[in-house]
Amino acid sequence: MNNNILFGLILVAVSIFMVGCKSDSAATKKSVFTYNQPNQVTSLDPAFARNMSNIWSVDHIFNGLVQLDEDLNIQPAIAKRWEISEDGKAYLFHLRSDVYFQDHEVFPNGKGRKVVAEDFKYSLGRITDPAVGSPGSWIFKDKLVMPHSFTALNDTLFVIRLQQPFRPMLGILTMQYCSVVPYEAVEKYGKDFGRNPVGTGPFKCVKWLDKQALVLLKNDNYFEKEKGAALPYLNGVRVNFMGDRNTGYLEFMKGNLDFISGLESSFVNELLTKEGALQEKHKPTIDFHKAPFLNTEYLGINLEFEGETPLKKKKVRQALNYAIDREKMLRNLRNNVGQPANAGFIPRGLPSHNPIKVKGYSYNPQKARTLLEEAGYPNGKGLPVIKLFTNNDYKDICTYLTKQWEEIGVQTEIELMQSAVLRDLMVKGKAPLFRASWIADYPDGESFLTVFYSKNPAPPNYTRFNNVKYDELYEQALAENDNTKRYDLYHQMERILIEEAPVVFLFYDETARFSKKQVSGFNNNAINLLSVKRLKF
95-116 burial, b if ≥16 CB within 10 A, otherwise e? Predict the structure, then answer.
């Protein structure tokens, strides 16, 4: 059967759920929310929710102990409440008793069973199991009391024990890695569980065709309610996989998509003014959602690159930072969606971001030239060509940077490649200078500072940064429960990063989301999570 016909039949099946709705209800007009995901989903197993495309889809299907609200406050999910021991080393969670896994053939009679504490012991244990190979294993690295780190006291009491206090632990538990999964499904499907997901979430997977689309249907037994009304409001979600953002944009403008996210140089001016507002002509039909996004965009410098590179000299790295007019870059290339990264690595939107206590790089080409001369390269003389590795999505920004550097005598050559190839080079340490970004895994500055902790591998420490003082401050911060003192430690670490310049700081991101007027219920959170359970037409 033709795949398009098959998807059409599936979506017709979704509409059957509409029976019983009043004919004049807005919901009867449409109940399937459709959006495009340019980057392919590689797995629907929470243990492999390592990137935004996987995270969004996993969030549609699964739940964890806790979750974040729009303001990044930690709220109950499957855990209705919790207590933390006085020494900060034990977390006791009281679970709801009305949460069930989605109906599936792995359960007796195909009926989803109740979630119990043993399920969380099993699910979180998978994250740390080397046999699973979860890229999220680092979230618990050196934090747990082994072997009794996860304990089910009974069906509704679950305990996590830590070696030392770790203030961001609740935030970590909001990550999709920490979603609960049923052992029955994992054992049946093995490594193919990622293509046959069974969760507790608002939607369940009914069809996934590679490079085409993912279709989800409403979970009628979902446990969350809003003001007494059962969630989700939608009957289905379709995720298209059009790798070309331009195609996604055109489909959105034709009305075939309800939502797109992100900017592309080819259509950004059609949607936004240079000041970062929605063009007047689109306001009757489109809503623009812009908010701080806990994502720092940067160029990483491999400080342990095996070959010869002038980037090993600190003053060259500093010069590259001073040579960039970040305000102009954002205005011309991103229509002021984003803010200049002039206060360290921790982005806007977190309380530990402090541009007063952390002074980053400003645009100062003369200072850049002076630093190059002090490094032994007056006006760039004798400086070899520097290769900058990036993917096609950031070609325009990288081209802008190379032109800025040309003005101080630095010649740069852009190497374009697929994202997966670039990531592999970063992991193996084969890229001396690379375009990258770091998105908060949980709402704490530590999520960004861990990128430079020398005991961390790549990921997250793609730059191989190794600084004894930085490591000491980082370890102190992990054990500090007083926010004021902890943020002071963060600021000291930020100042070290600015001095040593293992990265070229670019900008703090902002979400750029566009939706059709008839869709409401969006949650504009700073971690850019697309939560669909409250959406409605």
Answer: bbeebbbbbbebbeeeebeebb
Give backbone dihedrals phi and psi of 528, rounded to 5 degrees, phi first: 55, 40
The fold for domain 30-241 equals: D-Maltodextrin-Binding Protein; domain 2 (3.40.190)
Say which amino acid occupies 186.
Answer: V
Is the separation of the CB atoms in 266 and 246 below 8 Å?
A: yes
- Cβ–Cβ under 8 Å, residues 100 and 115: yes
Q: CATH says 293-510 is which class?
A: alpha beta
Whole-angstrom Cα distance, residue 163 to residue 143?
6
Task: Give start-end residues of each CATH 3.10.105.10 domain in the chain.
Answer: 293-510
Residue 133, SS3 per DSSP:
coil
Q: What is the pLDDT of residues 177-229, one digit of tens each?
A: 999 999 999 999 999 999 999 999 999 999 999 889 999 999 999 999 999 99
Cα separations in angstroms, 138 against 309, 383, 457 = 30, 38, 9
* Contact criterion met (CB below 8 Å) for 115 and 200: yes
pLDDT tens, position by position, 124-182: 999 999 999 999 998 998 899 988 899 999 999 999 999 988 888 999 999 999 999 99
Q: Tokens 């081209």 identify what position?
A: 399
Please state whether beta strands 386-390 and 412-416 pair in parallel, antiparallel, or not at all (unpaired).
Answer: parallel
**What percentage of residues in the chain have a pLDDT greater than 70?**
94
Q: Are 164 and 482 in contact (CB under 8 A)?
A: no
Beta bridge partners of 94: 81, 157
**Single pTM value for the model:** 0.80
pLDDT digits (tens, 9 = 90+) for 277-315: 999 999 999 999 998 999 999 999 999 999 889 999 999
Residue range(s) of every CATH 3.40.190.10 domain in the chain: 30-241
- Per the prediction, the chain carries an average pLDDT of 92
Are 18 and 31 a contacting pair, CB within 8 Å?
A: yes
